[in-house]
Write a structure and sequence with these properties.
The protein is an all-alpha fold. The protein is 54% helix and 3% strand. It has one domain: Orthogonal Bundle (Cytochrome Bc1 Complex, Chain D, domain 2). The protein has 7 helices and 2 strands, in the order H-E-H-H-H-H-H-H-E. Helix 2 crosses helix 6 and helix 5 crosses helix 6. The longest helix is centred in the first third of the chain and has 21 residues.
């Protein structure tokens, strides 16, 4: 019983650290890694390209996933909001079929293509952490 409590207590503590770490972060804080964006590109090409295009420019009913309009739609919202929308409704032909890890990998790829800076660690799929990361406008392309 004591070891079970210790394990549960440790997990709660680690989760609290993750949430505290994410508080106050934005999409400019290097919140995804390059390897994660590369994994996301693979998932994107398999599951998203047919609607959103090779260059994320969108087509027909599918909106662009990079650029001023995309940024305007998401600015000041959390990455948790973007995760929820993506995870629950995409891909359009198989909504909800991506795993949480695949969803954040695709978001990392979208952030990379949107000129957001990478960091050292992967973007986690934890909802509480993602809710603590604010989407802000990216820097101008170099």
């Amino acid at each position: 019983m004591t070891s079970t409590r210790l394990v549960i207590g440790s997990l709660v503590f680690v989760q609290a650290l993750i949430v505290v770490f994410a508080q106050g972060k934005t999409t400019l804080d290097g919140i995804y890694s390059e390897p994660q964006a590369a994994r996301g590109e693979t998932v994107y090409r398999e599951s998203c390209t047919s609607c959103h295009g090779e260059d994320l420019s969108g087509s027909g009913q599918a909106p662009a996933l990079a650029g001023k309009e995309f940024n305007a739609d998401w600015v000041d919202l959390s990455l948790g909001d973007l995760f929820d929308r993506t995870h629950l409704s995409m891909p359009a032909d198989k909504p909800g079929s991506l795993t949480p890890a695949q969803t954040v990998d695709v978001i990392a790829y979208v952030l990379k293509k949107g000129n957001f800076p990478p960091g050292a660690a992967d973007l986690p799929s934890d909802a509480a952490v993602l809710k603590g990361i604010k989407f802000v406008n990216p820097p101008a392309p170099k």
